Amino acid sequence: MRQHRIVLLPGDGIGPEITAVAKLLLDAAGEQHGFKLNFEQHPIGGVAIDASGSPLPASTLEACQASDAVLLAAIGSPRFDALPREQRPETGLLSLRAGLKLFANLRPVTILPALIDASSLKANVIKGVDLMVVRELTGGIYFGQPKGRIEADGDERAFNTMTYSRTEVDRIAKVAFDLARDRSGKLCSIDKANVLDVSQLWRDRVDALAANYGDVELSHMYVDNAAMQLVRNPRQFDVLLTGNLFGDILSDEAAMLTGSIGMLPSASLGSEGPGLFEPVHGSAPDIAGQDLANPMAMVLCAAMMLRIGLKENDAATALEGSVERVLAAGFRTGDLMSEGCTQLGCAG
Ligand code: ATP
Ligand code: MG
């Protein structure tokens, strides 16, 4: 029987509740589809600070590095808000990303039919949307040197540098091309090549790589147009490839097409080694421990882990189907039923 080694990181707030749901479904999926998941659970974030003083204990990182995939629920608690930023629970996540050498952030945006309010204007635009944003995570203007603030000629000036190397573009583009090949075979690369030199290199490298992917239909789009097209006609997109800054903005924009933060999974991948799968939402301390959390983002993360991390596609489809069936049967958590916004596509 196929075996996979999974590290579970429940973390803080609603993390343990939604992890328990995902684990239940993963065990059942393994039983049905002929594989066994060997789970190890480790502390990260606030609970790890409480237990050991560090938001990412060495034993947690080592277990993650030795695993086939890591499923993380949520990190963060207001109890630590007074600490300096580098000691807070969230630094555990940054260290984990660095320790696993993750550079590609994947955010699928899928509109589930059960959540569309057919009477709303937005319904026609979002119906059938199924896209994936692939965002470069470790380069670009957020990390480029030089940066800073200087006094000059009686004025003050601040600057950051947007920079990408050929190698950096190639490795993220490869992730996007591979994904496009596994999906419907369409890739749209986002840049600002009409203005930025760094974007011209980006576009040149993506074009060069396209030679290895004859079965993928490649297009390029300027980021300002992409921002408009995402709200005008999101169905035209399958896989979107972006740098760090453009992806930060576009992935939040695309996410809001779906409505609730409680529905959104994400994955972070490196060139090799385990991927990290985590919901887009945070630890939701306001509802933790009250059995109010929507576990669907976490279940969809588990499905992404099965599909992308473990190549267990049938089991992934089964988990996605479980979410669709629960919604189709009419069950809703509070985040999907807030006042004045009972369905997607409403004004809220
Ligand atoms: P972080 O900085 O970790 O992202 P945050 O406070 O910015 O945390 P969340 O923790 O995601 O953001 O919470 C934002 C709001 O969304 C809260 O009111 C929370 O209760 C709600 N929320 C987040 N996740 C869920 C979920 N899975 N189910 C229901 N409500 C959720
Ligand atoms: Mg937040």
Automatic annotation (TrEMBL):
Q: Which InterPro entries match?
A: IsoCit/isopropylmalate_DH_CS (IPR019818), IsoPropMal-DH-like_dom (IPR024084), Isopropylmalate_DH (IPR004429)
Coarsely, its chief localization is cytoplasm
List, alphabetically, the GO terms of the cellular component aspect: cytosol
Q: Which PROSITE patterns match?
A: IDH_IMDH
> Which keywords, in A-to-Z order, does the entry hold?
Amino-acid biosynthesis, Branched-chain amino acid biosynthesis, Cytoplasm, Leucine biosynthesis, Magnesium, Manganese, Metal-binding, NAD, Oxidoreductase
GO function terms (MF aspect): 3-isopropylmalate dehydrogenase activity; magnesium ion binding; NAD binding
- Cofactor note text: Binds 1 Mg(2+) or Mn(2+) ion per subunit.
**Record's catalysed reaction(s):** (2R,3S)-3-isopropylmalate + NAD(+) = 4-methyl-2-oxopentanoate + CO2 + NADH
Residues bound to NAD(+) are: G282, S283, A284, P285, D286, I287, A288, G289, Q290, D291, L292, A293, N294
* This protein's record includes keyword Iron: no
| EC code | 1.1.1.85
* Residues annotated for Mg(2+) binding in this entry: D224, D248, D252
State where the protein is found: Cytoplasm
Q: Where is this site: Important for catalysis?
A: Y142, K192
Note whether NAD occurs among the keywords.
yes
Q: Residue limits of the Isopropylmalate dehydrogenase-like domain? A: 5-348
Record pathway: Amino-acid biosynthesis; L-leucine biosynthesis; L-leucine from 3-methyl-2-oxobutanoate: step 3/4
GO terms (BP aspect):
L-leucine biosynthetic process
Cofactor(s) of this protein = Mn(2+); Mg(2+)
Q: What does this protein do?
A: Catalyzes the oxidation of 3-carboxy-2-hydroxy-4-methylpentanoate (3-isopropylmalate) to 3-carboxy-4-methyl-2-oxopentanoate. The product decarboxylates to 4-methyl-2 oxopentanoate.
Could you tell me which NCBIfam families the record lists for this protein?
Answer: leuB (TIGR00169)
- Please give the family membership noted in the entry: Belongs to the isocitrate and isopropylmalate dehydrogenases family. LeuB type 1 subfamily.
Protein name per UniProt: 3-isopropylmalate dehydrogenase
Q: Which organism does this sequence originate in?
A: Prochlorococcus marinus (strain MIT 9303)
Q: What is the lineage of its organism?
A: Bacteria, Bacillati, Cyanobacteriota, Cyanophyceae, Synechococcales
Q: Which gene encodes it?
A: leuB
